[in-house]
Design brief:
With about 375 residues, the chain is of the alpha/beta class. It contains 12 helices and 12 strands. A 10-stranded mixed beta sheet has the order 2-1-3-12-11-4-5-10-8-9, sandwiched between helices. The longest helix is centred in the last third of the chain and has 21 residues. The chain is globular and about 65 Å long. The two termini are about 25 Å apart.
């Protein structure tokens, strides 16, 4: 298969971790017989410095012409003084909208070798395997009107949370579909005791749920869900959330399983899927070669699964990551004081090597 991918490495550690995801993808391509066609474009701060636009037209066109987009990270303190429409994050939000990617899938899995990296007791976090399905193009982040206005020397800020029935229905179907392929349990997150948006959300999700009798549906207020994620994380399967709630809960889930550096994501539902680790640009360690590339590598696995329907190849990457961790290899964010740590490139090569070994073993057997 020809894998036509646009790479937008972005800022900070984005180029470092993306390079290792590509290394692993090339190992997959070599061993499974796929051809990679890679187009590299700028986004975020890197694009701002080059063209005064966080999402240049040529980047948009390249992304729309590809089968999938692999993103590193955007942003950094150097761009904090820019106006909102020129901030690196504005470029990312625009890209998601251009691609029509309304569904964000964020796994939070506790790898057994990393039990000791979680701030929670091992018996609490052991077995945690959550998939957060977050609506990505609605809610407070996109709702209008939004403004900061001044009247008689006092400023008032306004943001609007807005959802329509079709927007809720389409993300609900994504949630039920992925739950059906997992452990068939879906918890829908809202704040329906306070918010009209949440009341409509609960009503529509409940209606869609009747079409999925094999999936166990329950509802949870967002504050209660945040508490239960810490108390009993291994009881969750799929969490379905609106935009802001999902943004917050997915980071909490990352803390629960031990490191944001391990978290992948897929933004799907539109013309082209967008795949990115969720750890951000981490400018304090950028250029040092010590970042954790596994979130980016696992994002590449999600890309193979959701954009190319290559389940075996995706599972091979995920198994390779697990084997590397079982073997005791750690990056700096995962290593204990008495453990040695690998750099980004070394960890990427370890995973690529395991991919090649895995396929060779399968051929021999």
């Amino acid at each position: 298969m020809l894998l036509n991918i646009t790479v937008v490495a972005g800022d900070g550690i984005g180029p470092e971790v993306t390079a290792e995801a590509i290394r692993v993808l090339k190992a997959v391509g070599d061993t499974f017989g796929h051809q990679l066609k890679l187009s590299e474009k700028k986004i975020g701060g890197a694009a701002l410095l080059a063209s005064n636009d966080p999402l240049p037209d040529d980047t948009i066109q390249a992304c729309l012409a590809s089968d999938a987009v692999l993103l590193g990270a955007v942003g950094g303190p150097a761009f904090d003084s820019y106006p909102r429409h020129l901030r690196p994050e504005a470029g990312l939000l625009r890209l998601r909208k251009e691609l029509g990617a309304f569904a964000n899938l964020r796994p939070a899995k506790c790898f057994t070798p990393l039990l000791d990296t979680s701030p929670l007791r091992q018996e609490i976090v052991n077995g945690t395997d959550i998939l957060i399905v977050r609506e990505l193009l609605g809610g407070l982040y996109f709702g209008e009107p939004r403004s900061i206005q001044e009247h008689e020397g006092q400023r008032t800020a306004t943001n609007t949370m807005r959802y329509s029935e079709p927007e809720i229905e389409r993300i609900a179907r994504i949630g039920f579909d992925v739950a059906r392929r997992r452990r068939k349990k879906l918890v829908s997150i809202d704040k329906s005791n306070v918010l009209e948006c949440s009341r409509l959300w609960r009503e529509v999700v409940s209606r869609v749920g009747k079409e999925y009798p094999d999936v166990q549906l329950s509802h949870q207020y967002v504050d209660s869900a945040a508490m239960l994620l810490v108390m009993r994380p291994n009881e969750f399967d799929v969490l379905l959330t609106e935009n802001m709630f999902g943004d917050i809960l997915s980071d909490e889930a990352g803390g629960v399983v031990g490191s944001l550096g391990m978290l992948a994501s897929a933004s799907i539902g539109g013309k082209v899927g967008l795949y990115e680790p969720v750890h951000g640009s981490a400018p304090d360690i950028a250029g040092k070669g010590i970042s954790n590339p596994l979130g980016a590598v696992l994002s590449a696995a999600m890309m193979l699964r959701y954009s190319f329907a290559l389940e075996e190849e995706a599972s091979t990457i995920e198994e390779a990551v697990s084997q590397v961790l079982v073997a005791g290899y750690r990056t700096h964010d995962l290593a204990k004081p008495n453990q040695s740590a690998l750099g980004s490139a070394e960890m990427g090569e370890k995973v690529a090597e395991r991919v090649r070994i895995h396929v060779a073993d399968a051929v021999r057997n």
